[in-house]
């Protein structure tokens, strides 16, 4: 058994060493598009307000995510897994949405003329 383990570990190490210097074979992929240009203007009152709002928003969000996840686990255990989709939707709404606010979230929409 020790001989098999030693031979198999040497084989795996040899394969990793041989595969190391070769580039990945993903030449058919298109080059990555450049990142969209960010807003170059100076921060305004909405950006500053969003930064201050994050001081309160993020801890509340952590608490809400924890309570929702705990409640979801209790419901999942109580129903023996039959409410999987409902618990997943609760988790999605509580924990997977946007966590940080920015100035665009607080800025009013431009009015139509």
Main sheet, how many strands, which sense, barrel?
Answer: none
Any idea what the radius of gyration is? 25 Å
Q: Give the N-to-C terminal Cα separation.
A: 81 Å
Query: Mean pLDDT across all residues, rounded?
Result: 81
What structural category do the secondary elements indicate?
A: mainly alpha
Residue fraction in strands: under 5%
Q: What is the overall silhouette?
A: flat
How many DSSP-defined strands?
A: 0
Order of helices and strands: HHHH
Number of helices: 4
Report the helical percentage. 55-70%
Low-confidence stretches: none
Q: What's this entry about, in short?
A:
With 113 residues, this protein is mainly alpha-helical.
Describe the 3D structure:
The structure is a single chain. With 113 residues, the protein is mostly helical. The chain has a domain at 44-113. The protein has four helices and no strands. Helix 2 packs antiparallel against helix 3 (84-95). The chain is flat and about 80 Å long.
Defining key terms:
mainly alpha, 113 residues
Topology, element by element:
Elements: H1 2-19, H2 45-78, H3 84-95, H4 103-106
Helix pairs in contact: 2-3
């Amino acid at each position: 058994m020790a001989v098999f383990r030693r031979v198999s570990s040497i084989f795996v190490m040899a394969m990793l060493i041989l595969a190391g210097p070769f580039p990945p074979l993903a030449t058919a992929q298109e080059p990555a598009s450049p990142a969209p240009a960010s807003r170059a203007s100076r921060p305004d009152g909405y950006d500053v307000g969003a930064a201050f709002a994050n001081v309160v928003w993020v801890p509340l969000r952590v608490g809400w995510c924890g309570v929702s996840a705990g409640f979801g686990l209790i419901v999942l255990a109580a129903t023996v897994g039959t409410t999987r989709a409902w618990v997943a939707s609760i988790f999605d709404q509580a924990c997977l949405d946007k966590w940080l606010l920015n100035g665009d979230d607080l800025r009013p929409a431009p009015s139509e003329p």
